[in-house]
Amino acid sequence: xxxxxxxxxxxxxxxxxxxxxxxxxxxxxxxxxxxxxxxxxxxxxxxxxxxxxxxxxxxxxxxxxxxxxxxxxxxxxxxxxxxxxxxxxxxxxxxxxxxxxxxxxxxxxxxxxxxxxx
Length: 118
What we know:
By secondary structure, this protein is of the alpha+beta class. It has one domain (29-112). Helix content is 25%, strand content 35%. It contains 4 helices and 5 strands, in the order αβαββαββα. The chain has a 5-stranded mixed sheet. A hairpin with a 3-residue loop joins β4 (92-99) and β5.
């Protein structure tokens, strides 16, 4: 007597791909991945500071999870966005940890964090 296999044939196991609503950045846009921003208040303060950077236009939040913010930034300027963020993001020290044509990854530390004891 032959027992039926508990594993269905390969054709029956394949499921269709889940469609993604994410699209790549368009012309003049950059995905900015920022960490650590431990609370939603930190996230909000960072976005307000980012809006003050020259050349930054519209911001579109892609996600915020586990202290990581991903935001799509419309940017127009002669310098690279990474250079401008390092030079002058009000209230933050910025360290670039990764960069390619359409994505910028940064570590941030707020100036108020440096003043906290402990």
